[in-house]
Sequence to fold (521 residues):
Amino acid sequence: MMTYIVFILSVIFVVSFVGFSSKPSPIYGGLVLIVSGGVGCGIIMNFGGSFLGLMVFLIYLGGMLVVFGYTTAMATEQYPEVWVSNTTVMGVFLLGLLMEVMLVLYVLKSEEVGVVFKFSGMGDWAIYDTGDSGVFSEEIMGVAALYSYGAWVVIVTGWSLFVGVLVILEVTRGD
Amino acid sequence: MNPLIFTTILMTVLLGTMIVMMSSHWLMIWIGFEMNLLAIIPILMKKYNPRTMEASTKYFLTQATASMLLMMAIIINLMHSGQWTITKVFNPTASIIMTSALAMKLGLTPFHFWVPEVTQGISLTSGLILLTWQKLAPMSILYQISPSINLNILLTMAVLSILVGGWGGLNQTQLRKIMAYSSIAHMGWMTAVLVYSPTLTMLNMLIYIMMTLTMFMLFIQSSSTTTLSLSHTWNKTPLTTTLILITLLSMGGLPPLSGFMPKWMIIQELTKNSSIILPTLMAIMALLNLYFYMRLTYSTSLTMFPSTNNMKMKWQFETKQITLLPPLIVMSSLLLPLTPMLSILD
Fold:
């Protein structure tokens, strides 16, 4: 099982995306988003990116999702929609699950899968190397490169975040 | 809005488009698109009524979907070519998805449904920015990936856009919706010639922006958003009725006005590439556009449109002085003799 852990985690990832795409109440969407965030962290860690995985937990789940949860809790309604409460939501959820199950069976059974990109069955899902160039971990070097060669990216993303806050304040000001 | 905040947000819109146009890394281009989208939302929502909020929401949803499609195409391209530069899109799937995403951003058929609704819901100045500045960034990316675009998809979308732009505008009396459908049709003309000669796309974009700027500024000056209120300009500023006539005929593509230049060049380029039926169809469908421009000129400048006597005295604050208007009017009507200069766009 550990050989195919990335495949299993990816399947759980897609299932939790189906879970919130079928539009239950946002609180329940946040719940499966936590699951998907944790699973995504696991996928990244299997490729050797321990720093980025923990970043997902810290910033995404621990920062952004917490704020999202608070704002949703303020705006929630008396009887929020669960996946089983509404026929439409349940139908879409089951349809998404069905499609995922069919895709998993297709991957497991056939030798070569070519949907958008080709990969040859289950063999391509197993991780052989973590992408290390031997001495340094590739992923930490990427983070270091972001702050040295990629200074322009940091400036642009920092400015985007700042303007994002300005935009949100401007839009919600209401007068 | 606080002027400082407004300036910051407007500068971010400009910065976003500049980043898109100047980057060679796909990720930076995507970041530029997102920055542009994020910052233009409060500009669209300058007045706080439900109509502008609905229009901004529609704009945000469609453009965010287009950005997501673009990101997927970028990642597929990355997987098949292993590099992030924009010069060539190596995979046909990625190219098709990219073309669809950029068509959604431009408002080409079949992704044109948001253009009239969003343009109608926002103020005239915001509509101006929406229909002119926001077209620059996607068009520059289409220009850069033009060698690898699938011709069939692009030509289908272009011809359908010209058709929808012509037909859709026929039943409209609201000026902003008319300008939106005109924008759809002009985008169709621009993308039709993209694969054959991207220079002509840029020429058409230039002339289109000048003409649309002129039209919107004429509307802003007379504060008119419907055909009926435009038909009262003869009372307030009679000169603008003539200018509206000239500019609208230029938009319709009549010689000897400058709006004829891009259409002429595009038809010539298409026939040079041995496609005869296509430019014929496009020229015929441009007549639909011309019809509703003519209807506007009929009610505005050619006749004194019937209205009750108390509506004839158009009340507004003191006349707005738009400094840029006279040069724009001159440029959008008299540029035809300068056609040989389009070689500077190469």
